[in-house]
């Protein structure tokens, strides 16, 4: 099975739907087509979407008993294509290897929606598979003359009464009319969107109703380590990535970005025709590019053109050293969201507490920073049709945005999804890469255009995960338990979904509306009084003419930052009460799942119960001191624990994380081995955030624009990682990989405190910062 | 100006017409349609573009194509053939055998997005040619401290890579 049933420029799988075939079916339920491939190119027949109420849009059972399944959700690198196949296989009682998935193409998948994780993506295909299973049972009952209750299915073969028939045989030539009940619609532009991103309908179509699904006790595929399907092709070089798309007559483009984040174009430079004979200049407002049929010529010509292109001065950023000051200075009004008890109760509880602990935590700007800078290929044709090949986890949102930018109907636009570098939430609202650049340049040149961003461009101009300033306060009673918690988080916008190319070209964009949300899922039910407030401000450095630091969500958004403060506070309170920090958490919850995963993870880590800091904690000297720390998180029906062990040299501030134990109870584990992989890799990303990452900028532009300035974790910095999993049959599915990064920074900060007796309340724990903090 | 360059890539002679200073990466991808190596940083800072040149890992994003003339270029697409030749496999066996590093990458389920992994496998092949039985510390050292830069994986698959290199080492001995 392959995650991508289609390869660009090659025929579609035999039997895959074409418009002609689709029309011929007239709403048929089961198809066993052998229609030859009729288009390998979007819009070949003007078909730009599938009807989600038709089963054939979702599932196709072929006469050889293989299955094609389609969904707008995509593989984001965590193994979704494997999990979807497992869930579909489970409901249909087939082997997952027999399923091919078509993902993310707006013209060839029915539902749209986010690819923000398994929970968001799985429910549609699971229900469709369940509806299909029951319909197949009825069909088999009729055909075999055996009551449905007496039938059983193994590997897609229905048996009963001494007879059997395969799904493939069963559906051959059948023409049943089963409708899939759906609600919702495709993403569209909505300036009033409550989420502040200027879009509505990002959930896409939802399959409704409650078809009977398999009992967990009957699972044969879910819970096994089915290999993630796309991996062999990635290893052998057969995968067709978005960067591999080539079209006849395609031009390579390189962008010339403004001198600062807010500069306007004064004049476009010139190109020496002798030196660059086939290169051309394309520009619209502040969008400037070089195009050439030859990529190397485009690169060199762009360098040359950049040196002679003139821009206005601009200095509208505060500088990354002044982010907290800038956030503090914003004229804050009411919070955009507030949760928990009412203010007066919390304030009263804090006022009457035996002791209060207050702290401010800061998280810097960080960014998704994919290893492969983003790119897109677009073909805008004279008939008005638009096709874009890219890597988005929100193809329908991107489709809506491109249509909006070009002022055309979304029906004219097709977005094709292909693998590319991991992007960790960056494309959740459509965008955020070279898509707008590509469509604008293609429209202006009349040719297919491939826009490849450079690393510098990606690290300077893509959207960012904004800084947070979080004030937290706890009331402690005479026994050292917490009686109240109050938190207020302040952050620039983080769902600014504007397409960079459209902003620079002065073309229509979505309108982001500043806001923020309380992302915490409250883990400590024994703390009676709590008030959590979230405040949001516009993107920094952004106005009508400049994109500024377009804030966007990134892996475990909001909760990563808010939990950093909450768990920091818990560690500070535990230390103040002289209670072991694991015990302190156990003391504040009755939630059995949290209690179990905490106990099991602590045991795996060899946790020694004692208060922090360690009795030999030290904040001076050239000899290393060691410490350990813990944190937890509850997110998306999953319970997480992180335990860090560190070694710190106080004089230099150099921290080495020597071991990390991560525990998760995410309900029923779908694929234990891939969960193990995702938990370990999530720890690596979390360590990167804890120790190294920060977007830096001066007043004009981002300065952390290569890998020696935007530092991420290297292999040598990876500690030994221990993984603890609890799988439960009675709690449904939970989010199994996303939050792994978020339980790292608070644990590392706690371990630093254990080793030195000093609380670090901001990230990253870079040596100069830590050394300064320890010097006091 | 474009000139004719004769390259030996994955065992086959290839004549391309390219400006000699064109980075090998673009020649491999755009002229020869070998898309295993991919563009990352374009400045020798990440390893996504790595290929073998006479068995040594180079960053093809900064290696002029002309520099590869007269040397043997290997991309991940060519790894199975190298292994088959080394083991003198029959054509039939060769057709169904991957390089042990590739097989280990599949068996250990290493790639997440996979973007960096072509370069990672190239680095692993080079390491195992020099050190048939590397320790975890030696693997970390090779993927981090060898010039010109660490091999970076943003998805964080480093633990899986270490497992896979050790698995490959075992199977190459076998
Ligand atoms: S792309 Fe060549 S080292 Fe990064
Ligand atoms: S697997 Fe995604 S960057 Fe390495």
Structure report:
Chain A is of the alpha+beta class and 776 residues long. Helices cover 27% and strands 21% of the residues of chain A. Chain A folds into four domains: 19-239, Aldehyde oxidase/xanthine dehydrogenase, molybdopterin binding domain (Aldehyde Oxidoreductase, domain 4), CATH 3.30.365.10; 251-313 and 374-452, Aldehyde Oxidoreductase, domain 4, CATH 3.30.365; 320-367 and 464-497 and 509-559, Aldehyde Oxidoreductase, domain 4; 580-775, Aldehyde oxidase/xanthine dehydrogenase, molybdopterin binding domain (Aldehyde Oxidoreductase, domain 4). Chain A has a seven-stranded mixed sheet. Chain B is α+β, with helices and mostly antiparallel strands. Chain B has two domains: 3-76, Beta-grasp domain (Ubiquitin-like (UB roll)), CATH 3.10.20.30; 77-172, [2Fe-2S]-binding domain (DNA polymerase, domain 1). In chain B, 40% of the residues lie in helices and 14% in strands. Chain B has seven helices and five strands; from the N terminus they run ββαβββαααααα. Chain B has helices spanning 24-31, 79-86, 91-95, 100-107, 117-130, 136-145, 158-173; strands spanning 3-9, 12-18, 50-53, 56-59, 72-74. In chain B, strands 2-1-5-3-4 form a five-stranded mixed sheet, with helices on both faces. In chain B, strand 1 (3-9) and strand 2 form a beta hairpin. Chain B is globular. Classes of the chains: A alpha+beta (776), B alpha+beta (174). The interface between A and B is large, with 57 and 58 residues. The structure holds FE2/S2 (inorganic) cluster (FES) (2 copies). One FE2/S2 (inorganic) cluster (FES) sits between chains B (111-117, 153-155, 157) and A (77, 371, 422). One FE2/S2 (inorganic) cluster is lined by residues 39-42, 44-49, 59, 61 of chain B.
